[in-house]
Design a protein that fits this description.
With about 325 residues, the protein is an alpha/beta fold. Helix content is about 45%, strand content about 15%. The structure holds zinc ion (ZN).
């Protein structure tokens, strides 16, 4: 009887120690976070519209080359449905694309879903359309998923006009079968140096983006879907360990693509703009609405940008 009691006590102690270890490791993970509210360059009051990405790319292309550089290049990494508080999961310095670039530039609050009271959904097609065209749905026409973009230029088309080659890679079919179909047809008809690659999954997207970088494409954009997939299947937000892991997975995926940039033989002579962002947040198992969890987004960039009052309201 005494031995049985002892065993029970030992079992209890083991369970308590395990629980404490879990709690401490979680607390540590949070305490070690490199990306939290304090990591942002400006406060949340200065939340920029996601349309500003198009302007940052355009301004970069239009300004003179930096001293000693011979060519401008752009990498845009999209993490689909990566909520702003998902950034709390990013602390793996070795494998984080976000941490690799934000020290030389910054991390900024941004928002999806159009201006206040907008009818633009916080969905994938409207989000990336706003990022790529610099306008809200009244400009690009993509109020929600399932709608083709109006004939307004994306940052790819503007770059092609200025002599750059472009690659857009994603494993989400709607980009290629609905939103950018007209752009793809035009690029083919005019024989433009513009690739639109429908990848089979994130692994394929990553490999295709790395290949485009090796092939010397100037503007490369790739989107990871693991975060959005995790949110829809088991819940957006940090209450869900599967979502937390997906945030890390997306950022490791981005780091591998970023490594391909740095491994280029001509890298020292190139001026690279690198932007990492998301199209929308999410709440419970969905997104599309106008809650803060769905509207609040973020972007990291490897060069400092200085928001002014014009930027806070920027849209075409
Ligand atoms: Zn999305």
């Amino acid at each position: 009887m005494k031995k049985k009691m002892t065993n029970t006590w030992i079992a209890c102690v083991i369970v308590l120690v395990a629980l404490a270890a879990t709690f401490i490791s979680r607390a540590n993970a949070c305490g070690d976070c490199k990306v939290n509210a304090a990591a942002f360059t400006f406060s949340a009051e200065e939340r920029l519209p996601q349309t500003i990405i198009q302007k940052i790319v355009d301004d970069f292309i239009n300004r003179p080359l930096a001293n000693g550089k011979e060519r401008k290049k752009v990498l845009i990494l999209g993490y689909d449905g990566f909520r702003e508080d998902g950034l709390n999961n990013i602390y793996d310095i070795e494998n984080s694309a976000i941490l690799s670039i934000m020290d030389s530039g910054g991390l900024y609050h941004s928002f999806a879903g159009g201006l206040e009271d907008s009818s633009q959904a916080t969905s994938t097609s409207p989000g990336w359309s706003s990022i790529l065209t610099g306008g809200w749905h009244d400009y690009h026409g993509v109020e929600d998923n399932g709608i083709p973009k109006k004939d307004v230029p994306t940052l790819f088309q503007t770059a092609v006009q200025k002599g750059y080659s472009t690659t857009f890679v994603s494993s989400w079919k709607e980009h290629f079968e609905t939103v950018y179909t007209q752009d793809m047809i035009r690029a083919e008809l005019l024989n433009e140096p513009s690739q639109y690659i429908f990848a089979t999954n994130d692994e394929d997207s990553k490999n295709q983006a790395i290949e485009a970088i090796k092939q010397d494409f100037d503007i490369v954009m790739a989107i990871a879907e693991c975060t959005d997939n995790a949110g829809h299947s088991s819940g957006f937000g940090n209450d869900n360990p599967i979502y937390q892991e997906a945030c890390q997975e997306a950022d490791h995926w981005g780091k591998e693509i970023l490594n391909a940039v740095k491994e280029r033989e001509t890298y020292p002579k190139e001026e690279w703009l690198v932007i990492i962002t998301t199209d929308h947040g999410g709440i419970d198992l969905h997104h599309g609405g106008q809650s803060d969890e769905e509207r609040n987004t973020w972007f990291a960039v490897n060069q400092p940008v200085t928001p002014n009052s014009e930027w806070l309201n920027y849209h075409k």
